[in-house]
Design goal:
The chain is built from no helices and nine strands. The chain is mostly beta strands. Strands 1, 3, 6, 7 and 9 form a five-stranded antiparallel β-sheet that branches.
């Protein structure tokens, strides 16, 4: 594992539904980029505006290049747990407990932060903020 830098950084990415450009069906949207040699220690998802699609069958996954569901696996908007409803920020799936054993090393090249849409429906509303905490290894 990379040596710990004395400073942590955060990378905040916003995902407003209108960046999909009315994309129907499925596709992937680049929301930002994680730098090379970053080690992700935690991530949080804050849904600011509830997501909707025609019947709420669309699914949303949040991740990065090579692991599209790293921050949140594909979950339908209609899921009974209401993961895409406006609510308090929640800890994402990656390194959720903050334990060193669960940190995620990005590697020597930068990676795109991605939102992947599926389920055959156009997302008609919604906005979230994904906050990724990381440090740069030596």
């Amino acid at each position: 594992m990379a040596q710990l830098s004395p400073f942590f950084s955060t990378h905040d990415v916003s995902f407003p539904y209108d960046v999909t450009g009315g994309m129907a069906g499925s596709g992937t949207i680049v929301l930002g980029q994680l730098p090379a040699n970053a080690t992700i220690t935690q991530a949080w998802i804050h849904v600011i505006t509830t997501f909707t699609s025609v019947t709420d069958a669309a699914t949303i996954a949040l991740g990065y290049t090579g692991t599209t569901g790293a921050f949140d696996a594909a979950i339908a908007i209609s899921n009974g747990g209401n993961p895409w409803d406006n609510a308090a920020p929640r800890v994402s799936d990656v390194a959720a407990d903050g334990l060193v054993a669960n940190f995620v090393e990005v590697g020597t090249t930068s990676l795109n932060v991605l939102a992947t849409i599926a389920g055959g429906e156009t997302i008609t509303a919604g906005k979230l903020l994904l906050v990724i905490k990381y440090y740069i290894g030596a």
